[in-house]
Specification:
α11 packs parallel to α13 and α12 runs antiparallel to α17. A hairpin with a 2-residue loop joins β4 and β5. The protein has a 16-stranded mixed sheet that branches. Strands 13-14 form a two-stranded parallel sheet. The N terminus is likely disordered. With about 550 residues, the chain is of the alpha/beta class. It starts with 5 loop residues before the first strand and ends in a 7-residue tail after the last helix. The protein contains 17 helices and 18 strands. The longest helix is centred in the C-terminal third of the chain and has 27 residues. Helices cover about 30% and strands about 15% of the residues.
């Protein structure tokens, strides 16, 4: 197109600033695009040009929302930049068309087992609608906003994707922020960043400071990009909410322990991703030594580590992950953020570290049966388990002999089947009990308010066996109900719950309190323990299932905080 120097592809395994011939054409001001990144027959019109600190970009306009996809916020992390702190991208000339998703961080194919691919429950565990390719040139972000170039001062919501610290992407249909931006009159931002061996390997050499937290430094660079640029997209840089589920929630927790991130965000939401502890520096060094041994490379041989093919690094990384002692859902895990005393000051709930984010209001919560989908995706017959199967199945969650906690739960819930008990216990341990203990610790420190929730709504799909699984609320918060209908069913109940969830998330982003005209939501404190239960009828419950909470405290189950 005349006057456009850079053109992004809408799909395909090409560089993020390379034009894919035939992927886009302009007809009377309307953009006609084909391929999974846009949807069959989709039509979008070009939007206005927006100047950023690195160059001009143009997105597309759809039903009143301006979308910008694959915007570079950092330089490629390949070659000499591998394992180093991120660098800002080179400035470009002309206008960069930010039309298609940028690259996802390298992570490899984790679903080569056909028994997993053929398992109907696996749908709940995959990235629904993944619409990108993998590359070390993955430092890209996406923006959705109702207006540009007007300093409208809208709340900004930065989404951090799930997948632990090892996999995942913001480039999916479920995480598309267009509908949430339109519904809430907010600016939504999401990003891709380094993961696994490329994002969290401690390299002890000059110039590689912070390498054990490179993926978190990438997100820090996103927050800095927001401060410098978001006002041009109608956002308020003084009102930024970070939110994420699963690994994204863990990233939120890690950001709250980073001195350099202080003041770059103002509210936080942790969705089923509680991280009360991170790797110590010694544990990070052990991970690096294991990796280098698997690669037959010296720990200080940075040139060799930077020259290795990505596939070989990923193979060695997977070998290290598989080494004993095996970890199920314990924290911290290998190739995750490291308390290095520089990027991350200390463990998130140490008093001095907690003080870094004491002024930040927090929403935190989980799903009623978090691990049901995870378990069924690995074993579709798991719901037929027997009581005598529970000790073996729960040992990895409990971290000690589970006999006493199983007996306690059977006393509390005598009518539950083995599967029902397992689904509840693997949600309470560690996710829900750690949510409660984190809230208690912040209360004790007289920090900003904490708002507790639990998603109890049961998906009608999968014959009811999946119940309220991990991540159920994510497409509902984004108002992408149909994109997540493989799990939520896509019916009227799911649409109604989406309305309630997204309203609360937007209210919190706007004011720091999630109450809405139809839902009064008080803060969580130890005397009342007010918790919002999201269900077909949403309500506040005081200390829901308190008997189970007291049992876990009495038996010292879950991570000591």
């Amino acid at each position: 197109m005349p006057g456009i120097e850079h053109q992004q592809s809408a799909a395909g395994s090409v560089g993020r600033r390379t034009f894919l011939k035939g992927s886009a054409s302009s007809v009377a001001g309307t953009l006609l695009l084909a391929g999974t990144a846009w949807g069959k027959g989709a039509q979008r019109s070009f939007g206005p040009v927006v100047e950023t600190t690195h160059g001009a970009i143009r997105g597309f306009l759809s039903e009143g929302i301006h979308s910008f996809r694959g915007v570079p916020y950092g330089a490629s992390t390949a070659g000499r930049n591998r394992f180093r702190p991120p660098e800002t991208p080179r400035a470009w000339h002309g206008v960069l068309n930010a039309l298609g998703w940028g690259a996802t961080a390298p992570q490899g194919d984790s679903t080569t087992d056909r028994s997993f691919a053929d398992n109907p429950y696996a749908l709940a565990e995959g990235d629904v609608g993944l619409q990108t390719y993998e590359s070390e040139d993955c430092l890209v972000l996406n923006v959705w906003t109702p207006s540009v170039n007007d300093d409208a001062g809208r709340p900004v919501m930065l989404w951090l994707h799930g997948g632990g610290f090892w996999s995942g992407s913001a480039s999916t249909a479920v995480h598309d922020g267009e509908r949430l931006s339109r519904f809430g009159d907010v600016v939504v931002v999401s990003c891709n960043h380094r993961l696994n061996v490329l994002g969290f390997t401690s390299v002890d050499a000059a110039g590689f400071e912070g390498s054990g937290n490179a993926g978190m430094l990438d997100i820090l660079l996103v927050l800095q990009w927001i401060q410098s640029n978001i006002s041009r997209f109608g956002g308020d840089p003084k009102n930024v909410t970070i939110f994420g589920y699963s690994g994204g929630g863990q990233k939120v927790s890690a950001l709250m322990a980073m001195p350099q991130a202080r003041g770059l965000f103002h509210k936080a939401i942790v969705q089923s991703g509680q991280t009360p502890a991170l790797l110590t520096a010694e544990q990070g060094e052990d991970v690096t030594h294991r990796l280098c041994a698997a690669l037959a490379v010296g720990p200080g041989d940075t040139a060799a580590l930077q020259a290795l093919p990505v596939d070989r690094l990923l193979s060695a990384y997977r070998a290290v992950i598989a080494q004993p002692p095996s970890q199920l859902w314990g924290f911290p895990s290998r190739f995750s953020p490291v308390v290095d005393g520089q990027v991350i000051a200390g463990q998130p709930l140490e008093p001095s570290v907690l003080a870094l984010s004491a002024h930040v209001p927090l929403m935190i919560g989980s799903a009623r049966q978090e691990m049901a989908a995870v378990t069924l995706s690995g074993n579709p017959q798991a719901h037929h388990m027997r009581f005598e199967d529970l000790p073996t199945r729960l040992a990895g969650y409990v971290g000690k002999d589970p006999t006493a906690v199983i007996a306690g739960y059977r006393d509390i819930y005598p009518a539950m089947s083995p599967w029902d008990l397992y689904a509840i216990m693997t949600a309470d341990i560690p996710t829900r009990i750690n949510s409660i203990r984190i809230a208690q610790r912040r209360n004790a420190a007289r920090a900003a308010p904490v708002f507790m929730y639990r998603v109890d709504w049961q998906t009608p799909g999968f014959n009811g066996q999946m119940k309220a699984p991990h991540g159920l609320e994510v497409p509902l918060v984004f108002r992408n109900v149909q994109e997540g209908s493989g799990v939520n069913g896509g019916g009227e109940d799911a649409e109604a719950l989406s309305e309630r969830l997204s309203s609360a998330w937007v209210a919190f982003a706007r004011s720091g309190a999630p109450s809405t005209p139809t839902l009064e939501w008080p803060a969580y404190e130890r005397t009342r323990r007010a918790t919002m239960l999201f269900d077909r009828e949403c309500r506040i419950a005081d200390d829901p299932d308190g008997e189970a909470r007291r049992l876990l405290d009495q038996l010292r189950i879950g991570q000591a905080l």
